[in-house]
């Protein structure tokens, strides 16, 4: 999905359904594809894709009613906002600790629940914020500073 | 080294993405925890895993991996293959286990390594 946004930015909005493991990861794949289509450098699209994937799986596995991933692309930044309406995270510091997970057994069997989701989101963002309240939900804000084409340096295409 | 070379040398079965076998493989990564793959696999890596549900296709796509090498012989569901075709992610199949595949792939990709 794609909508025009203010200030020349392009805005992509994806709704993710709770428990929909069969489609989990597909919104992120689409986001990455759309970013590439908008001329975003492969390395930046990859970072955004990884952030979106981890966020998407969190919505699928944990959010009561799923949630929304909104990606805004401007000349300098890729802004990713992830929002759900609950249940909310009890202890954010604990949730941000690598290896900590409350994933149910069915998710762990599929290779989720490594306790690396939020860590991966943070690692791929230049700026990261998380707000959460029990009962009202969780909101994550990420910003990627876009690589400047003339300053990107040489990289082998196979690593792009 | 292309996927096609690796398919031939490791005698793999191509179950999805046959149109993309000219893709270059720059390295390999073995793992079944999806977040670990997203954190540590590098673009262009061929990913060895025993996971065969649809989310692996999403992981390979966002992480810009060259393809997925499924260890253990069982093919994934048809819906997974369809998604891989749609996203241009080759899925290769072997009856060998992940340990053996990783060893054989490493010998091909890093000649002279001990």
What does this structure look like?
The complex is a heterodimer of chains A (160) and B (114). Helix content of chain A is 31%, strand content 25%. With 160 residues, chain A is of the alpha+beta class. Chain A has a 6-stranded antiparallel sheet with strand order 1-2-3-4-6-5, with helices on one face. The radius of gyration of chain A is 16 Å and the shape is globular. Residues 150-160 of chain A have low confidence and may be disordered. Chain B has a 5-stranded mixed sheet, sandwiched between helices. Chain B contains 5 helices and 5 strands. In chain B, helix 4 (78-87) links the parallel strand 4 and strand 5. Chain B is globular and about 40 Å long. Chain B is of the alpha/beta class. Helix content of chain B is 39%, strand content 18%. Classes of the chains: A alpha+beta (160), B alpha/beta (114). The A-B interface holds A 21-26, 28-29, 32-33, 42, 46, 49-50, 52-54, 57, 110-112, 114-117, 119-120, 123, 156-160 and B 24, 26, 32-36, 38-39, 42-44, 49, 51, 53-55, 57-59, 61-64, 79, 83, 87.
Question: Main traits of this protein?
Answer:
heterodimer, A: 160 residues, alpha+beta, six-stranded antiparallel β-sheet, 5 helices, 25% strand, globular, disordered C terminus, B: 114 residues, alpha/beta, five-stranded mixed β-sheet, 18% strand
Q: How can the largest sheet of chain B be summarized?
A: 5 strands, mixed
Strand content of chain A: 25-35%
Strand content of chain B: 15-25%
This entry's quaternary arrangement is heterodimer
Low-confidence stretches of chain A: 150-160
Tally of separate helices of chain A: 5
Intertermini distance of chain B: 19 Å
- Silhouette of chain A: globular
How many helical elements of chain B?
5
- Beta strands of chain B, count: 5
What structural class do the secondary elements of chain B suggest? alpha/beta
C-alpha Rg of chain A (nearest Å) = 16 Å
Uncertain runs of chain B: none
Main sheet strand line-up of chain B:
1-5-4-3-2
Q: Between the first and last Cα atoms of chain A, what is the distance in angstroms?
A: 25 Å
Shape of chain B: globular
């Amino acid at each position: 999905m794609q909508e025009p946004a203010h200030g020349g930015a392009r805005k992509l909005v994806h709704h993710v359904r709770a428990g929909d493991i069969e489609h989990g990861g597909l919104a992120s794949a689409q986001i990455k594809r759309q970013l590439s289509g908008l001329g975003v450098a492969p390395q930046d699209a990859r970072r955004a894709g990884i952030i979106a994937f981890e966020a998407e799986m969190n919505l699928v596995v944990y959010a009561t009613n799923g949630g929304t991933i909104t990606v805004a692309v401007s000349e300098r930044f890729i802004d990713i906002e992830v929002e759900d309406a609950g249940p909310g995270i009890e202890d954010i510091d604990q949730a941000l600790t690598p290896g900590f997970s409350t994933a149910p057994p069915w998710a762990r069997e599929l290779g989720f629940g490594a306790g690396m989701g939020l860590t991966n989101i943070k690692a791929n963002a230049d700026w990261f914020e998380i707000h959460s309240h029990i009962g009202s939900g969780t909101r994550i804000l990420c910003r990627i500073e876009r690589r400047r084409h003339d300053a990107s340096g040489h990289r082998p295409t196979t690593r792009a | 080294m292309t996927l096609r070379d690796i398919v031939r040398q490791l005698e793999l079965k191509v179950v999805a993405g046959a149109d993309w076998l000219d893709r270059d493989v720059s390295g390999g990564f073995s793992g079944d925890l999806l977040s670990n793959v997203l954190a540590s696999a590098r673009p262009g890596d061929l990913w060895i895993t025993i996971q065969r549900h649809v989310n692996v296709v999403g992981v390979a796509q966002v992480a810009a991996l060259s393809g997925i090498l499924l260890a253990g012989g069982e093919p994934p569901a048809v819906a997974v293959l369809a998604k891989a075709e749609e996203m241009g992610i080759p899925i290769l199949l072997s009856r060998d286990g992940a340990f053996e595949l990783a060893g054989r792939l490493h010998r091909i990709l890093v000649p002279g390594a001990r």
